[in-house]
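Why do we care about 3D structure at all? Because function follows from shape, and shape follows, mostly, from sequence. That is the central idea of this module. The next example makes it concrete: a single protein chain, its amino acid sequence, and then its structure expressed as tokens.
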Amino acid sequence: MTLADWRNVSIVLLALPASVFGLVLVLLVYQSIRGTNWLIRRVKLYGPEVQSRFRAVANSSEKASQQIASPFIAAGAAAAKARRLLSFLCPSARGREKT
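And the structure:
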């Protein structure tokens, strides 16, 4: 065999693993596209139900936080109202509030 023959054989031997690797990559891309399409179909099927449950949880947590925070907000408003009334009735008490 001549050097040109060995060159041709080595090119073929190097091309075989490269083509197998390329085929594996093509199969991976194809399967990932199929998996993505399957996932999109599932999300469209179950998405509205999950969204409605999240909305219900958000509404109930908002309602609970309002019930917990409302007494503190009312107490702060009453204290501000009392301070404003005191400063209106006793103007000399304004300077003492800061100390």
